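Private note to self, pasted from the team thread so I don't lose it. Backbone tokens:
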């Protein structure tokens, strides 16, 4: 340990964690396109395996942003605008038959959207930073996540709550966000600033959320979107703990162009993958 609670082996700042999350997400979506086009099934499975590491890192960065940012409202607004911008072309593809049929998707075959997890978990955490009774407002976005989860489990094909409007990770994302946020707010309150301690407890939050939901997922009905398949495919997400261990608590590189690129990257990389597979498919 170094001075002021530093962990001398912590070499990953927020920039590098975000970059790693982008890489894992891109590999995951490459696997999604390979599966949709029926290409290289083993490579597709490997890509989806690697992609499981992205979500725990994104939620960790979200929790850090909600804990440390002085502009939390603007942060949430940017996430909302990003989701809205992403939804427009995705909805066009979904309801434009030639495009939708070419890649075999429909409103009932899409998975939930991870940006809904980020948006609504972010809203829960934002409300928890408010003062007094306003903290209770966190119940509203939490209720949306519960409702999304309920339909994914017990009525997955209902037309009244289409998959592309549902959260992608449901209660797991909520548990993960609350764990990351709650532990570090507790350490803030008691001024326990040891970097290694924070990292280990954040890893503990990841494992606790995973184990809790893993056991719960195995009890769900077989027709549920969440269930034994979730328990099988999401297990690699715990490998993200290796990167959390070496987090140094710093924001890192944060130039204006990087922020714009970060908020645009999802749409950019999905558009590139879509065009590439339209040609090779």
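Design output:
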């Amino acid at each position: 340990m170094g001075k002021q609670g530093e962990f001398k082996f912590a070499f990953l700042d927020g920039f590098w964690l975000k970059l790693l999350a982008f890489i894992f997400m891109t590999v995951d979506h490459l696997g999604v396109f390979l599966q949709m086009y029926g290409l290289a099934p083993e490579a597709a499975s490997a890509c989806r395996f690697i992609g499981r590491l992205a979500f725990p890192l994104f939620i960790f960065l979200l929790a850090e942003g909600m804990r440390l940012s002085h502009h939390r409202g603007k942060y949430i607004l940017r996430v909302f605008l990003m989701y809205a911008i992403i939804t427009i072309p995705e909805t066009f593809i979904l309801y434009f038959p030639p495009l939708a049929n070419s890649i075999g998707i429909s409103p009932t075959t899409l998975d939930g959207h991870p940006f809904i997890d980020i948006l609504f978990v972010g809203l829960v955490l934002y409300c928890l930073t408010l003062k007094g009774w306003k903290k209770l407002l966190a119940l509203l976005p939490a209720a949306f996540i519960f409702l999304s989860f309920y339909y994914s489990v017990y009525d997955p094909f209902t037309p009244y709550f289409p998959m592309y409007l549902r959260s992608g990770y449901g209660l797991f994302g909520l548990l993960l966000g609350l764990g990351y946020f709650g532990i570090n707010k507790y350490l803030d309150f008691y001024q326990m600033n040891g970097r290694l301690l924070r990292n280990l407890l954040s890893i503990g939050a990841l494992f606790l959320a995973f184990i809790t939901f893993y056991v719960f997922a195995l009890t769900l009905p077989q027709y549920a979107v969440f269930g034994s398949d979730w328990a099988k495919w999401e297990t690699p997400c715990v490998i993200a703990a290796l990167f959390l261990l070496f987090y140094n608590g710093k924001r890192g590189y944060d130039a204006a162009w990087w922020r714009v690129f970060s908020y645009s990257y999802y749409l950019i990389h999905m558009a590139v993958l879509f065009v590439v597979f339209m040609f090779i498919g």
